[in-house]
Design brief:
CATH class of chain B: Mainly Alpha
Structural class of chain B: mainly alpha
Number of strands of chain A: 2
Order of helices and strands of chain A: HHHHHEHHHHEHHHHH
Number of domains of chain B: 1
Number of strands of chain B: 2
CATH architecture of chain B: Orthogonal Bundle
Radius of gyration of chain A: 19 Å
Number of domains of chain A: 1
Largest interface: A-B, 40 and 40 residues
Number of helices of chain B: 13
Largest sheet of chain A: 2 strands, antiparallel
Shape of chain B: globular
CATH topology of chain B: ABC transporter involved in vitamin B12 uptake, BtuC
Oligomer: heterodimer
C-alpha cells in the first residue's frame, strides 16, 4: 500500500480542489468558468474510462461513442423532452449500447479490442452521419440552451460522480476481481471470478457517465455537428490523460487531466496542430519511457530512495 | 441498375481497389506477423507516400510511375530507422508473460506516431485536399474503359503482391520470414537471425505502404488525415486472409474491393465509410481472436 502521508496530502488536495470548483463560478469570469468546465469534462470522462480500461486492461479507444450518443440524444429530443429527463436518458442510452455490444466485443482481446472499439465508434459516427445526410440534416442549431453556470454545475456533479465511481470500484471486491482478470483472465476464471459478468458490468459502468457528459456538453455549443461530438480525438485524449497519470485509483487521472487540459487550453485555440503533435509525442514518450505514468514513476523513485 | 452491376466497369474498379488493399495489407501483415505489433500508423505511411508522389509530380513534373520506386525506398528507409531507433528496444524486453502488455503498448505507441505523422503533415502541407492528374489517357479493353492511372495501379499493386507471395514461398529470406511469423522462438533456435528478419519486415512493410500511397494518389484526392481508413482496410484483409498468408490476403483484399465498390454502387457514396467500418467490426466479431485462433485451426 502507498504511504499514508501521501494519502493524507492527496485528501487535502482533493478538498482544496473541491473548494476551487465551488468557488470558481463566484470569482471568475466566463472565460475562467469555461476553462473550469473543460477540466471538469475531462475529469468526468477519464475516471469512467479507467473503470474498464485501467482495471481490466481492456483498453478502449472508443470512449467517444458514449459521449456522442448522449449528445445526439439531447439534440434530437431538444425542446421535445425536458433536460432533467434527457440527460439521465442519455446515460441510460450509452449504458444500454455498452450492454448490447459488450457481450460480443469483450470476447475480443488485447490490441484487437483496442482497434475494435475504435472501429465501433467510427462505425456509429459514420452511420449517424449517413442517416443525417439522407434526412437532410447536415447541422442543427439549439435555441434556448441553458446558461453556462447551469452547465458548469451539472458537469461538476458528473465529475464528482465519475471520481467517486472509480474510487469505489477500485477498492471494492468487484474491483479486485477486475484487476485479477487483467493479470490473468483464465486463472481468475478458474478461481471463481465471474469474468464475463464483471467485464460487461465494468463496460456498462464506464459508459453511463460519458453519455451524460455528452448530453451536457451538447448544450455548451448551440451549433451541433455529428462529426464533432464523435471526434476520435476525445478517446485519444482520455487515454493520454490516464497514461500520463498512471495508477489504478482516482489520483492518476486527476493529475493527467489537470496537466493536459491546461496544455490544451494554452495551445488549442492558437495552434491546434501543435497541440496534436505534442499529444502524439506524449503518447510515444510515455509508452516507451514512463509506462506506469507519473504515479508509477514517483513510486519507483521513492523505492530507489528507500533502497539507497 | 442491373446493367451497371453486371458491367465490366465495376468489376475493374473492384479489382483496382482490391489490388491496392492487397499491397497495403501485405506490409501490415509482415510487421504484425513477425513482431505481433499492430501498426495503426500504416495508413499514414500510405498518406506520406501519396504526398511524396504529389510533390514529385507538381514540383518536378516527375511521373508517379518513376517516383514510385524512389518513394518506396524512402519508405523502407523510414521503416528501418523506426525499427532501429524505437521498436527494437521495445521488443528486446519481451518475455512470454509481458507479450500481451507489449502488444497493447505498441498499439498506443503506433497511435502516437500516427497522430504525429498526420499533424506534422498538416502543418507542413496544409490540411487541404490534394489531387493531380497523371496518366489520364483512356484505354478500351473488351468494352471496359480504363484510365492509364487505374490500369497502372492495378498492374503495379497486383504485380508487387504476387512477387511478395513468390518471395515468401521461394526465397531463403522469405522462408526465414515465414518461420519467424509462425514460430518465433523455434526459428531463432534453428539459426534464423530474428533481428534481421524484423528489420527487413519493417523495411518491406513501410516501403510497400509508401508505394501504395503513390498509386493511391493517382486515383483519388487525399489529405493528411486520409490514411486511417487504409489501415482499417489492411486490418480487414489480414483478419480474413490469415496471418502471413499473402495468397489468402490477396483473395480477402479482392473481396473487400468487391464489397466496397458494389456496396457503394448499390447504395450511395455516403455509405463508403459505413461499409468499411461495418466490415471491419463484423470481421473482428466473427474472429474474436483475430489471427491467432485461425492459425490453430489451420494446424
Amino acid at each position: 500500500m502507498a504511504s499514508t502521508a501521501s494519502d493524507r496530502s492527496f485528501a487535502a488536495l482533493t478538498a482544496a480542489g473541491a473548494l476551487v470548483v465551488v468557488a470558481l463560478p463566484f470569482l471568475g469570469n466566463d472565460y475562467v468558468v469555461g476553462v473550469g468546465l473543460t477540466v471538469l469534462m475531462w475529469l468526468a470522462l477519464t475516471p469512467s474510462w479507467c473503470v474498464l480500461s485501467r482495471l481490466t486492461g481492456y483498453v478502449s479507444l472508443g470512449q467517444v461513442v458514449f459521449y456522442g450518443l448522449g449528445a445526439y440524444l439531447v439534440v434530437v429530443t431538444w425542446q421535445a423532452v425536458p433536460l432533467w429527463l434527457a440527460i439521465p436518458a442519455a446515460g441510460l442510452l450509452a449504458a444500454t449500447f455498452a450492454a448490447l455490444v459488450g457481450g460480443p466485443a469483450l470476447r475480443v482481446r488485447g490490441p484487437y479490442f483496442v482497434i475494435l472499439t475504435f472501429g465501433l465508434a467510427e462505425l456509429v459516427k459514420f452511420s449517424i452521419m449517413a442517416y443525417e445526410a439522407a434526412s437532410g440534416m447536415a447541422a442543427r442549431i439549439l435555441f434556448g440552451a441553458p446558461d453556462l453556470m447551469v452547465i458548469y454545475w451539472l458537469m461538476a456533479v458528473l465529475a464528482g460522480m465519475s471520481l467517486l465511481l472509480l474510487t469505489w470500484v477500485s477498492g471494492s471486491r468487484f474491483g479486485h476481481g477486475l484487476r485479477s482478470l487483467r493479470e490473468n483472465e483464465e486463472a481468475a476464471e478458474t478461481l471463481g471470478v465471474p469474468v464475463e459478468r464483471y467485464k460487461l458490468l465494468a463496460f456498462v459502468l464506464s459508459a453511463a457517465i460519458p453519455g451524460m457528459v455528452g448530453a451536457v456538453m451538447a448544450l455548451r455549443s448551440t451549433y451541433f455537428v455529428v462529426g464533432q461530438v464523435f471526434d476520435p480525438m476525445v478517446s485519444v485524449t482520455v487515454i493520454a490523460m490516464a497514461l500520463i497519470g498512471g495508477g489504478d485509483n482516482a489520483r492518476g487521472p486527476v493529475l493527467g487531466v489537470l496537466f493536459l487540459a491546461l496544455l490544451s487550453e494554452l495551445l488549442w485555440a492558437q495552434a491546434p496542430l501543435l497541440y496534436m503533435i505534442i499529444l502524439g509525442a506524449i503518447l510515444v514518450v510515455f509508452v516507451l519511457l514512463v509506462p506506469d505514468g507519473v504515479i508509477g514513476l514517483a513510486r519507483r523513485l521513492r523505492r530507489a530512495e528507500t533502497l539507497a | 441498375m442491373i446493367d451497371t452491376l453486371l458491367s465490366g466497369q465495376l468489376l475493374f474498379a473492384a479489382l483496382v481497389t482490391g489490388s491496392l488493399y492487397a499491397l497495403i495489407a501485405l506490409g501490415l501483415n509482415l510487421v504484425y506477423g513477425t513482431m505481433r505489433m499492430l501498426n495503426v500508423a500504416h495508413g499514414d505511411v500510405v498518406m506520406l507516400g501519396a504526398y511524396a508522389a504529389f510533390w514529385a509530380f507538381t514540383l518536378m513534373g516527375l511521373s508517379p510511375l518513376l517516383a514510385g520506386p524512389v518513394v518506396a525506398l524512402m519508405g523502407a528507409g523510414l521503416g528501418v530507422l523506426l525499427y532501429r531507433g524505437v521498436f527494437r528496444r521495445l521488443l528486446a524486453g519481451v518475455t512470454p508473460s509481458t507479450a500481451g502488455k507489449i502488444e497493447g503498448n505498441s498499439l498506443l505507441l503506433f497511435f502516437g506516431l500516427s497522430i504525429l505523422m498526420q499533424n506534422i503533415a498538416a502543418l507542413a502541407f496544409t490540411p487541404n485536399n490534394r489531387a493531380y492528374a497523371a496518366l489520364g489517357e483512356v484505354y478500351r479493353i473488351g468494352g471496359v474503359a480504363m484510365t492509364g492511372n487505374r490500369l497502372a495501379a492495378l498492374l503495379v499493386a497486383g504485380g508487387c503482391s504476387i512477387a511478395a507471395a513468390l518471395f515468401l514461398s521461394r526465397s531463403v529470406a522469405g522462408l526465414a520470414m515465414r518461420a519467424v511469423i509462425e514460430r518465433r522462438e523455434a526459428a531463432s533456435i534453428v539459426g534464423v537471425d530474428v533481428d534481421r528478419v524484423q528489420g527487413l519486415s519493417f523495411a518491406v512493410g513501410f516501403g510497400s505502404a509508401a508505394l501504395a500511397g503513390v498509386l493511391m494518389s493517382m486515383l483519388e484526392q487525399f489529405s493528411p488525415f486520409s490514411g486511417f481508413p487504409f489501415t482499417i482496410a489492411g486490418f480487414i484483409v489480414i483478419i480474413l486472409g490469415g496471418l502471413g498468408n499473402v495468397t489468402g490476403g490477396l483473395l480477402a483484399a479482392l473481396l473487400l474491393g468487391v464489397i466496397e465498390v458494389y456496396g457503394v454502387a448499390l447504395t450511395s457514396a455516403n455509405l463508403r465509410s459505413v461499409l468499411l467500418y461495418g466490415t471491419f467490426v463484423a470481421a473482428l466479431l466473427i474472429f474474436p481472436n483475430g489471427l491467432i485462433a485461425r492459425r490453430v485451426m489451420a494446424r
